[in-house]
Amino acid sequence: MKNPIKITITGAAGHIGYALAFRVASGQMFGPDQPIILRLLEIPQALSSLYGVGMELEDCALPLLHDTVLTDDPAIGFRETDYAILIGAKPRSKGMQRNDLILENAKIFAMQGRSINEHASKNVRVLVVGNPANTNALIASANATDLHPRQFTSMTRLDHNRALGQLANKTNRLVADITRMIIWGNHSMTQYPDIGKCLINGTPAYDLVTRDWVIDHMIPRIQRRGAEIIEARGLSSAASAADAVVDHVRNWALGTQEGDWVSMGVASDGSYGISEGVVFSFPVTCKDGEYEIVQGLGLDNLDQSRLKTSEKELLEERAIVKDLLPKGR
Ligand code: NDP
Q1: Which residues take part in binding NAD(+) (predicted)?
Q2: How confident is the model at residue 91 (pLDDT cuts 50, 70, 90)?
Q3: What's the CA-to-centroid distance between 91 and ligand 1, angstroms?
Q4: What is the pTM of this model?
Q5: What is the pLDDT of residues 297-309, one digit of tens each?
Q6: What's residue 326's pLDDT?
Q7: Catalytic residue numbers, as ranges
């Protein structure tokens, strides 16, 4: 039997964490022969709820789940962990300005970056979901001074999957028929869902849909999908977000399909003219636990201006949190 993989989930008693923990523990992230140790981290006020999650996990009698640690202590939560999935974040409270929210969360992710640096496996892979996810990933990475920025990513996979769903629905094809979707940029309203490289059973997507539909309907719908779900359910999306976490980590760890790619927020290396260091969503291929940004994709003027708009927003977010970034990061 394989050695168990240790996976930390922060904010594990929250909506997304609750939807995620059972999927990870039942083998959907790493496969049916990979034992799991879950380390579920919460803030002290949410510990009682977390104990309930622990009881339910126990009641599932999941054969792959070798141990579950429930804690409010980051030193225990991140101890020797192989994968840290950072979901817990402060929601915007009434009257709070966007910059204040970014700063409040920045403090949490700076602390978590330091704790991961000190306690996690030196090969740890970190996925940030808590918003503003791209900038929180930058802060955590910058504060994990012994780890490489390539070990930190942020999630745009839900936006990627939403775009696949929209396109499949519009063209009356299966999601499995579509390859080469891209989400560029920030996980925010400035993100750019780009179907310009998409193939549907080998046919360019733009042979099957009009640019007007993409610009007037598809892109705004993906950008506002979170709000649409809140309006319908009275609650934010959680199951689809957890599903996207599973997809993101599984592809990162186990690889992407030949001939296809996925979207991940990663530290820019200057690809496509994006400032180095900002965590920007690019198309990536993954193999053996490493990702590579897909190079050489042609971008027209409109594409480039959309990338620049999102980059500008990320540079503004970075400026807001600059005091929490150790020099040079
Ligand atoms: P959720 O589990 O619904 O969301 C958690 C975070 O994920 C939020 O920042 C949310 O952003 C973000 N997110 C990213 N993508 C999505 C998406 N598609 N849909 C919804 N959210 C998305 O929040 P809960 O309030 O239910 O749970 C948060 C948990 O975190 C609580 O249990 C709380 O105790 C814990 N927590 C931990 C902290 C810490 O570790 N120090 C600090 C604060 C809270 P957005 O708000 O923009 O929707």
Answers
A1: 11-17, 105, 112, 129-131
A2: confident
A3: 7
A4: 0.96
A5: 999 999 999 999 9
A6: 84
A7: 187
Using the 8-state DSSP alphabet, how is residue 155 labeled?
Answer: -
Q: What is the rounded (10 degree) CA torsion for 136, 139, 142, 146?
A: -60
Please indicate if the annotation marks 257 as binding a ligand: no
| Burial status of residue 215 (CB atoms within 10 A of its CB: 0-12, 13-18, 19 or more) | exposed
Q: What percent of the chain has pLDDT over 70?
A: 99
3-class SS of residue 86: strand
Q: For 149-199, what is each residue's pLDDT tens digit? A: 999 999 999 999 999 999 999 999 999 999 999 999 999 999 999 999 999
Q: What are phi and psi of 194, to 5 degrees?
A: -120, 115
Q: Before 132, cis peptide (omega within 30)? A: yes
Query: What is the Cα 211 distance to its own chain's centre?
Result: 28
Choosing from 100, 109, 112, 131 the residue with most ligand 1 atoms within 8 A of its CB, the one to mutate for a pocket test is 131
Q: Using 50, 70 and 90 to split pLDDT, how confident is the model at 329?
A: low
Is the distance from the beta carbon of residue 74 to the nearest atom of ligand 1 less than 6 Å? no
17 assigned ligand-binding residue: yes
Instruction: Tell which atom from ligand 1 comes closest to the C-alpha of 41.
Output: 40
Q: Give strand pairing partners of 193.
A: 183
| 130 Cβ closer than 6 Å to some ligand 1 atom | yes
Decide: 72 in ligand 1 pocket, CB within 6 A.
Answer: no
Domain at 157-318, CATH class: alpha beta
Q: Does the annotation place 61 within a ligand binding site?
A: no
Q: Domain ranges for the chain, please list them.
A: 5-154, 157-318
pLDDT digits (tens, 9 = 90+) for 225-236: 989 999 999 999
- Output the average pLDDT for the chain: 96
- Tell me which residue of 90, 86, 241, 87 sits closest to 161, measured CA to CA: 241
137 ligand 1 Cβ < 6 A: no
Phi, psi of 6 (to 5 degrees): -95, 125
Q: What per-residue confidence (pLDDT) applies to 162?
A: 97
Looking at domain 5-154, does it have CATH number 3.40.50.720? yes
